[in-house]
Q: What sequence folds into this?
């Protein structure tokens, strides 16, 4: 017996295994970041004084990175759409752009980190910096994971397209869902850390 | 599209498997087959249980005979742990912290969820494997890695983690041992493992049920695994977050859990401050309370299966049990701070959590009552698994009822951090969960190996364990009520108020060692029966659920033909039917649902 519903949807749940799996994974990620955001709230309401993010971090750089990441979400959708239209070269183009934008995000982020470190702003300096580095660091790790997964689907993983198109599209959809989630986390992180 | 496999396809698949020889490593070590992974989990879990219990047997020497040389192994422990065989208090603290961690995270959960869940769940829902077999393997190896890191921490400089299994900050942050850092790394591995596992369990249950197996026809065990999967999925990530934060505190020097103005030994600690020790407790217990239900729910599932099978009756109130189970799962997320009544978090918070704790006891009692009522009017077969399942009922009841005084914030002032808490918790998990898990091993052993475990040895194991478990844990209640504190390296011998109850320390220790002795019967029986046990057919217990339709042991892909389910899970003593049961996959006979069955 083969494992069913890898490619096709189960009629009563309307889901493939991978789609349900990725949504459950994202639910757990919500709890992970939820706990960290709760930590932020608890530490902040207990704090005697709390700095304004904009006085410590660079809002223009953060805003630029926000735009980069939102654009990468758009190209992620476009590469999924290209596959739906049976256009593999379009998929590769947009997936390439998505990965490029992710790397740009990481580059900008590491510039920000290096700038902070060069001014002696280490996580141990204050609670604000501690939570800033923890949240953005964990988020950056998620970006790195996304780059690895997307890179796999751009390279060796794309061979599946020639043997099973539906299954490959399912995988790209799951990767896309993950990517949108990572993007969404940043959309919360940016105002919380940079603006509030 | 419904999944339909024709007979031809099945034959083809079978043919393909026969010509598909895997190497030794692929078959037994890096296997993706849920049955092999389940066995790996179960055996590793059992070994960790033995190891964690071994730590406790050494601790019990120290409690019964404080600061006297430990016999037999004392000289092997080394000067940093027990110079001259006399245990250092620091080493006692390590043993305490690691006993809790190993038993909960490396012993019971891997056995109950990783072992039983992996092996039984796909079989019970008629699936060929878990939904994501490779993820399943990754989950086991992440768990294994976590276990190795935990074990390795014993030989790290300064020894293993020694701040209790709860790792309360700031103690766990300011302590200089590498062991605590390794504890955190190990926990992150274990959390990753259970995350992957829980996704797999939930997807498998929802997606891979055989045709005709609706949710209300699922065996109760599958329901418990499903709810457990959600608890693991949603409760573990906050501890992962907490672990990352404590790791930051220890390695990078942040102060998430270190308050401003912290003094140690008269000098101020050089940190930025502004953190909150309470925050760790909130994050920790947000996991660790649902974790208690992760420990108990699979055990309830196993007991339900065994009771239905051995009373030859449908479970009483199946639907109410399922509803209670889901409710327990939901409520377990909003009771965590009842572990924190004494932290000074305030009476308003205490009132809230004391109320939710009262509420969660109701569905637990519903499930237990339904299990007791299931016995009524049954013609009970007192098989070895049934003995364990029957013993579970009063043991879990004692564990649950002794929790009530702890759930109220007023009596908790007296009982907090005493041996009463240890007694209460262990009644739930040791005579409760562990007995159920042993019962499950005896019950499903013939499915896994095609052979029965020895009956006489099983009975000796049961009665010995049952009696000595009570000798161990009942006196703890007495000690705790008289106010004896836990976590004391000398067993509380220096306190005047403890003098009347100190005698119990020796009794408990004797009980613990006797318990260890009786486990030898199980260990021998387990290995002996693999080779020499009585050979039996596919369905030796005359059970109804799908796993008994598959061959014993089930081949790769589990079922010779895809099962089709026609009825509810517990069609025992069906009037006019001969034999007295109808299997779920049996096309003949009436098609019934669980709700239609009354007492």
A:
């Amino acid at each position: 017996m083969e494992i069913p519903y890898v490619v096709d949807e189960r009629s009563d749940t309307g889901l493939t295994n991978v789609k349900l799996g990725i949504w459950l994974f994202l639910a757990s990620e919500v709890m992970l970041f939820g706990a960290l955001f709760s930590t932020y709230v608890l530490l902040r309401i207990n704090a005697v004084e709390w700095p304004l993010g904009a006085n410590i971090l660079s809002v223009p750089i953060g805003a630029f990175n926000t735009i980069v990441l939102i654009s990468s979400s758009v190209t992620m959708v476009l590469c999924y759409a290209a596959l739906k239209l049976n256009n593999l070269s379009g998929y590769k183009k947009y997936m390439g752009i998505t990965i490029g934008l992710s790397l740009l995000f990481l580059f900008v982020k590491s510039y920000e980190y290096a700038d902070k470190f060069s001014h002696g702003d280490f996580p141990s300096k204050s609670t604000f910096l501690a939570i800033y580095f923890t949240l953005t660091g964990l988020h950056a790790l998620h970006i790195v994971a996304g780059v690895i997964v997307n890179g796999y689907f751009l390279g060796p993983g794309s061979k599946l397209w020639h043997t099973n198109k539906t299954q490959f599209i399912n995988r790209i959809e799951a990767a896309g869902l993950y990517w949108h989630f990572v993007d969404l986390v940043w959309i919360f992180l940016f105002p919380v850390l940079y603006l509030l | 599209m419904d999944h339909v496999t024709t007979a031809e396809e099945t034959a083809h698949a079978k043919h393909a498997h026969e010509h598909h020889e895997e190497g030794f490593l692929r078959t037994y070590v890096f296997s993706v087959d849920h049955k092999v992974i389940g066995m790996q989990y179960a055996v590793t879990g059992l070994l960790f249980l033995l190891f964690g219990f071994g730590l406790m047997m050494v601790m019990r020497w120290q409690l019964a005979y404080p600061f006297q040389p430990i016999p037999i192994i004392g000289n092997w422990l080394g000067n940093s742990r027990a110079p001259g065989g006399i245990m250092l208090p620091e080493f006692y603290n390590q043993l305490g912290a690691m006993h809790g961690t190993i038993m909960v995270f490396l012993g019971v959960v891997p056995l109950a969820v990783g072992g039983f869940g992996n092996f039984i769940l796909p079989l019970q829902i008629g699936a060929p494997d878990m939904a994501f077999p490779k993820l399943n393997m990754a989950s086991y190896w992440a768990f294994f890695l976590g276990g190795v890191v935990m074990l390795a921490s014993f030989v790290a400089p300064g020894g293993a983690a020694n701040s209790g299994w709860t790792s309360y900050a700031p103690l766990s942050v300011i302590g200089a041992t590498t062991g605590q850092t390794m504890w955190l790394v190990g926990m992150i591995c274990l959390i990753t493992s259970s995350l992957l596992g829980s996704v797999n369990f939930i997807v498998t249950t929802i997606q891979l049920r055989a045709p005709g197996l609706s949710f209300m026809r699922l065996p109760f065990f599958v329901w418990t695994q499903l709810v457990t999967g959600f608890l693991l999925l949603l409760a573990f990530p906050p501890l992962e977050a907490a672990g990352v934060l404590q790791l930051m505190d220890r390695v990078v020097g942040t102060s998430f859990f270190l308050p401003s103005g912290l003094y140690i030994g008269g000098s101020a600690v050089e940190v930025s401050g502004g953190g909150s020790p309470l925050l760790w407790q909130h994050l920790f217990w947000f996991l660790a309370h649902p974790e208690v239900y992760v420990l108990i729910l699979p055990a309830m599932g196993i007991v339900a299966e065994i009771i239905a099978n051995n009373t030859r009756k449908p479970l009483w109130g199946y639907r109410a049990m399922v509803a209670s189970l889901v409710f327990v799962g939901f409520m377990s997320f909003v009771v965590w701070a009842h572990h924190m009544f004494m932290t000074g978090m305030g009476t308003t918070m205490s009132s809230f959590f004391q109320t939710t704790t009262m509420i969660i006891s109701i569905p637990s009692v519903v499930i237990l009552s339904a299990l007791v009522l299931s016995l009524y009017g049954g013609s009970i077969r007192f098989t070895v698994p049934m003995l364990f399942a029957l013993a579970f009922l009063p043991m879990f009841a004692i564990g649950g009822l002794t929790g009530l005084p702890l759930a109220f914030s007023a009596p908790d002032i007296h009982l907090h951090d005493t041996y009463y808490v240890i007694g209460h918790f262990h009644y739930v998990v040791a005579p409760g969960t562990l007995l159920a898990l042993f019962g499950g091993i005896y019950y499903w052993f013939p499915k896994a190996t095609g052979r029965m475990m020895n009956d006489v040895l099983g009975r000796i194991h049961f009665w010995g364990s049952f009696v000595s478990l009570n000798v161990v844990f009942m006196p703890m209640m007495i000690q705790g009520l008289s106010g004896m504190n836990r976590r004391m390296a000398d067993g509380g011998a220096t306190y005047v108020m403890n003098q009347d109850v100190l005698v119990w320390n020796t009794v408990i220790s004797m009980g613990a060692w006797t318990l260890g002795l009786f486990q030898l019967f199980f260990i021998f029986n387990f290995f002996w029966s693999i080779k020499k046990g009585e050979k039996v057919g596919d369905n030796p217990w005359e059970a109804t659920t799908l796993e008994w339709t598959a061959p014993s042991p089930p081949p790769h892909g589990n079922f010779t033909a895809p099962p089709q389910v026609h009825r509810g899970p517990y069609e025992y003593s069906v009037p006019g039917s001969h034999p007295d049961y109808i299997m779920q996959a049996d096309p003949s006979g009436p098609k019934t649902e669980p709700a239609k069955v009354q007492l």
User: Anything to note?
Assistant: Chain A has a mean pLDDT of 96. Chain A touches chain B through 42 residues (CB under 8 Å). The two ends of chain A are 56 Å apart (CA to CA).
